[in-house]
Amino acid sequence: MNTKNIRRVRGTILVVTLVLLGVGALGVTAGVAILHARVGQVGAIEDASVRRVTFENSRAVAREHMYSSVLAGGAGTGQSISLPNSWGGVDMPSWTGNPMQSMTIGSYNNHFGPRVDGMYESQFAVGVGDGITSIPKSYRVLSNYPILMGDIFTLHRPAITPGDLIRVRGNIDVYGRAVLWADLNSSYPGDYDDLNAVQYVRPDDGATPYDVDAPGSGANVMPDNYPMLASTYGVVGASPSYDGKLNVVDPGVANPDNSLMLKAQANSPIYVDGSSYRPWSGGVHCNGNGRVYIELDTASLSSVIVSNVFRIYLYGQSNAVEEAAAGAMNPIMIVHTRNSGAERALYSIRCFDANNRKLVMGVKKNVENVETRMYFYDSFANPTWRTMMFAENTQLRTINLWGGEVNFKGGLHTDSSLRHTGWYSYAGVFNIVPEDEPELFIPLLVRNAWLEGVAQ
Amino acid sequence: MKTQVIERSAARKAGYTLIEVMVAAGLLLIGISAASSLTLTMTGQEEINRAVSRTANLQENYIKAYHLGLTPAEITAVMPPEPSLASLNAAEATPTIPGVGAMESATWNFFVRPNATASNWSAGMWTGGDQGALRTMNFSAYRSPTY
Asked: Which end of chain B is more exposed for a tag (fewer CB within 10 A), N or C?
């Protein structure tokens, strides 16, 4: 091998070595670049996590504001609301007109809940912040009249007496939907055997086992556990207004658009104080000693606001002719509240004959949760009362003196215990059946509302 | 005599000297060592990346569960264990938000130890360091008082 060839060989080795080193360096560089990208991705994951948490915080603020302010008032100015340390914020629009009074029917069906249509809606364009930008969302405040939409029996959570333990006893047959916001007293799991319903909804998986049967057949009815959206009848004192509590009989200024009392006051009311004598006039009489008498088929009667009484007598109709005439009359309201311990405590409502007059009744005891008894006297033994009733902070006991059935045509919403008995012992059935002409009750009834948020 | 001189010169021209080979071997050794160290660091960094990803996901799940209404104690009881999550605490409060009213909040502190290998978190970046370093992640979660 001559010198020239030797140099070529050595040069070749050097070139090959350098190429290998170059390829290796490229590989290492690529690996470092990939790792760098991976570090960047992990950093982005963390940033995105913070943004999502911030966005959820903002949504919570939007919901709370809508429930506590928009639903509680007729108008408001737009404002930006921020959480401390930039952990969320929303841009709320101004609004006029309480959504509870909206008569705009939503142009869509709700496929995700038991209430399929007929919802009123108000839309609000809300900017929901995620820490970087404000994301436009459309919030729909939806409302309807649940008692007219099929929730003919609703057991709300106790509001005034939160620790009250609820029982349902006697045969209670609901020929519609029973909504059980409250858990029954867990000490008496057998109580549910007394509650029968065509359909029932429970919004949570409370500890108390449920055993709701269909009326008559005894077949077990499974709950329709839709993903229940929080709904509300309105503000309940200082507590949240959308947790299944009932406050519609006399919520005062906190919820003026959803108040039976205010609706009655605006409906040519007759005020009755149990200590003031009132002769028979306009279908209402008070003996001045805590007893008030009301003839439900008085055509001129619109509403009666009762206080300081211990007994209310309701006179219905005793024959088909009277019932037909009463059925054609306008709906009426009877509202009773007990606001202080100095007032008489209502303990009985005595219902005579049957009633076909459209009746909305609200009973509220602010002072203590004592039982109100509804006695049904009827020569036909199984009276039908066309009534939509709201009972707050008062246990209800319905009593058919003959031990027969009572057909409560309309609905019952309560937040306390309910039982049906005969005169001395448990007997008969308390049937809650839907109203045939629910639209006629609309002016006097209250709505509940809930929110749905969608992307714009 | 002349023949021996010619052979020695040819041998010198035909290959590398011992010194050249030693120098080349030394350089190669340094390169291999650097590559090995870099590989270890990269592997460790990737382990850290995976741990941080997992814990970031887990932290968000904690917050999601809080938004859904569970209490911190309930959330802690149901969440799966994560080796990189050394500890956590949550301080609950009911702050009043202007324009809204009372809300529920929980400030979560997650103490993350993602570095099974020799790494450390300092001043916003990972550097070589001891294995016991803790990283703290803070979140403030807000929710309506009752859903």
From this structure: N
